[in-house]
Design a protein that fits this description.
The structure is a single chain. The chain has 14 helices and five strands. It is mostly helical. The strands form two sheets. A three-stranded mixed beta sheet has the order 4-3-5. The protein has a two-stranded antiparallel ribbon with strand order 1-2. 22% of the residues are buried.
Length: 321
């Protein structure tokens, strides 16, 4: 109930539902005491006693389904271990953040979400027309022109990064549009590199990634966290996929499987599904899973990432930039 009260501060439609919940609980309490006093309460009539609360709970689920379109978002808010600040509280783990109506917006990169919220409230002139879309739309619009081509783009990413997932296909599409070669540079997740990532940060990133995915029309939310063994098994197949000219396809399929379809890449069944969807042969690939040569490749990418003054992903290096 405390969580619903907190959420109602940003969604007035829940106020009536909260009041109904208190009434339902009071009704159950009163009925319990009455039956106990006259000796009619027992385990057999427990379901009948709880009927008002169960009816109210069904309404809560339906309301939350409307507020949180994905199971992931509902989990992030209702998880009692997540600090309120990670979702809608008065503090955040980084600076240059905007907060409105219980939601965080990360500087200019998220102003489109803030505008969308104001538009939904009918605020401002011309509220039916989105203005703040140039950071993401149109994308690869029109012809690349005669000046297409240039130095290779270094693309640093991690299979455990939801932002890398959202950026992967779009990055390749952008580079292809301008005929820019891409050097794919996978690195280990931060926690597998010995870096500390707070729970607050992890929860905000997931929630923000879900918001971005909805905007971009990218499937997201059925997650099987690939940290550890799944990432290592995926990276062990980099050379195999690259040797068959299917590295892009393999990585794209891996990303979608673990971030949108709940596929456990730490199992043979899960990884086989990814490999075959990428147009590769599982019987061949499974013999390469135990190889360790990928570690040298990933370590070199991490060295280059650090030399560029970067540590998080996705990150890019183009020429001297």
């Amino acid at each position: 109930m405390r969580l619903l009260v907190h959420l109602a501060s940003a969604n007035e439609e829940l106020v009536a539902l909260i009041n109904e919940g208190y009434d339902a609980i009071s009704t159950v309490r009163i009925e319990y005491l009455k039956r106990k006093d006259i000796g009619e309460y027992n385990d057999k009539n427990l379901n009948d006693l709880l009927e008002p609360v169960e009816s109210w709970a069904d309404k809560v689920v339906k309301a939350l389904d409307k507020i949180f379109p994905t199971q992931l978002e509902r989990h992030l808010f209702l998880d009692p271990e997540v600090p309120f600040g990670a979702v809608s509280g008065d503090y955040h783990y980084q600076s240059a953040m905007l907060r409105y109506g219980g939601e965080w917006y990360g500087g200019i990169d998220r102003l489109d979400h803030l505008e969308g919220r104001w538009r939904s409230l009918g605020l401002g002139r011309g509220a039916d027309v989105a203005r703040w879309t140039r950071t993401w739309q149109p994308f690869c619009y029109g012809s690349a022109g005669a000046g297409a081509g240039g130095p290779a783009l270094d693309f640093f990413f991690s299979l455990r990064s939801p932002y890398s997932y959202l950026a992967f296909d779009r990055t390749l599409r952008l580079a292809d549009h301008y005929a820019i070669p891409v050097r794919l540079r996978p690195v280990l997740p931060m926690v597998m590199r010995g870096l500390t990532v707070s729970r607050q940060k992890r929860m905000y990133i997931l929630r923000d990634a879900a918001r971005e995915a909805r905007k971009l029309g990218i499937p997201f939310g059925r997650i099987s966290d690939p940290v550890g063994r799944p990432v290592e098994r995926g990276y062990a197949l980099l050379d195999y996929a690259d040797g068959h000219g299917r590295l892009r396809e393999f990585l794209s399929c891996f990303f979608r499987a673990v971030w949108a379809e709940g596929v456990d890449a730490g199992t043979d069944a899960g990884l086989a599904r990814i490999v075959e969807r990428a147009g590769l042969n599982w019987d061949e690939a499974r013999r390469r899973i135990g190889e360790e040569s990928w570690r040298l490749r990933v370590e070199e990418n991490q060295r280059l990432l650090a030399e560029s003054g970067l540590w998080g992903v996705p990150s890019y290096r183009y020429g001297e930039i």
